[in-house]
Design goal:
There is one protein chain. With 366 residues, the chain is α/β, with parallel strands linked by helices. The protein has one domain: Alpha-Beta Barrel (TIM Barrel). 41% of the residues lie in helices and 12% in strands. It is built from 14 helices and 13 strands. Strand 6, helix 5 and strand 7 form a beta-alpha-beta unit. The protein starts with 5 loop residues before the first strand and ends in a 14-residue tail after the last helix.
């Protein structure tokens, strides 16, 4: 039962015997697919099928397939344009068409791979496209309305293609001054300022978001009495603001708790317990998956009412899972060509031939 509150990474291309035994015992609510799990489309599909087979309840099979440098399939398929490339492509009507196509094509590709949730759209506002905070190229706009319009188009088309969405990173990683993969960003914006800017995409799109991911940044005005407390572990932010004040009733999940901003300070077990008590429904452990049993023991320390509320929200979310079709190599190749055409229409013929190579953050290497 408590395992449903965990989203776990997988070590390699196939399940090891040890992993299979661990996952059977824990029965996690879902899994996260990374580049390290990618060798071919057929191999990914075999992996996701094997994950589903060992679960008593249908698991969430998630991935970060944003486009641009955060594209987990870039070694086996064409790389879709990034959010920034799409928003820079031209007038709103043209961008709308390109982003809509991106959402639909992404859904088609993920369903072939047996994946049922995409960990996007990014709803962060880009205050500086060159900022060293892991967000370069990943934002749909430089103001709230631009994000609402563009991310909203992607989200609706992704969901129309029968893939669940997850908006991130609540309340804002666009404000981060450092990369949370390494250390904890500090944001000094007040709650009223957040409501008038960074939270607008969430409030506008909330009715059509399947889930929301909390971010690893400290918001000093939200938690003035808890210096250095990450937003992902903040009850003030997730329960009092997101749930009670903004009225969000869906699933909230943490970003990866193995990031330096968390694991270096809290350690495995206390981090998971704090995350759920703060208001998250699911805790994400993407790399140190061997520590999942420790996490499970700490989840059992949480009061039954909190666990039951999270389980109810997770169950409601999973009812919207659409089962994946049989894998077709012919369809895979068709969708891959559609991605290349999208690149050409977004970037031009010459630029479309070059994928993202410059590295800004560990987020693109996972």
């Amino acid at each position: 039962m408590h395992g449903q509150l965990l989203l776990l990474g997988v070590k390699g291309l196939t399940l090891t015997t040890q992993e299979a035994e661990l996952f059977k015992k824990i029965q996690p609510g879902g899994f996260v697919i990374f580049s390290r799990n990618v060798e071919s489309p057929e191999q990914i599909r075999a992996l996701t099928d094997s994950l589903k087979e060992i679960c008593q309840e249908e698991p969430l099979i998630t991935i970060d397939q944003e486009g641009g440098r955060v594209t987990r399939t870039k070694t086996i398929a064409n790389e879709p344009p990034s959010a920034q490339q799409l928003r820079n492509a031209g007038n709103l009507k043209k961008v709308g068409g390109l982003i809509a196509r991106h959402g639909l094509i992404t859904a088609d590709i993920l369903r072939q791979l047996g994946i049922n949730m995409n960990l996007c759209p990014v709803l962060d506002i880009s205050y500086n496209d060159q900022s060293d905070n892991a967000m370069q190229g990943r934002c749909y706009g430089t103001n709230a309305q631009e994000v609402i319009t563009n991310a909203g188009i992607f989200n609706s088309n992704l969901r129309h293609g029968k893939i669940l969405s997850c908006a991130k990173h609540f309340p804002s990683c666009g404000l981060a001054n450092v990369d949370p993969h390494h250390q904890l960003p500090i944001v000094n914006k007040s709650k009223d300022q957040l409501i008038q800017s960074d939270l607008l995409p969430y409030t506008a799109l909330m009715p059509v978001l399947d889930s929301i991911m909390s971010c690893h940044a400290h918001f000093s005005a939200i938690d003035p009495d808890s210096p250095g407390l990450p937003g992902s572990l903040s009850k003030n932010l997730l329960t009092n603001l997101l749930r009670h004040q903004l009225g969000y009733k869906g699933v909230i999940m943490t970003d990866d708790l193995d990031m330096g901003a968390i694991i270096n300070t809290y350690g495995r077990g206390p981090d998971v317990q704090l995350a759920i008590q703060a208001g998250n429904d699911m805790a994400m452990i993407c790399h140190q998956t061997e520590s999942a049993e420790i996490a499970l023991q700490h989840l059992k320390k949480i009061n039954t009412h909190t666990i039951d509320e999270s389980l109810a929200r997770i169950k409601k979310l999973k009812k919207r899972i659409i089962y994946s079709p049989t894998f077709s190599n012919k369809l895979w190749e068709k969708y891959d060509q559609e991605v290349m055409q999208l690149r050409i229409d977004t970037l031009g013929e010459n630029a479309a031939k070059n994928s993202t190579t410059e590295k800004f953050s560990p987020v693109q290497d996972y």
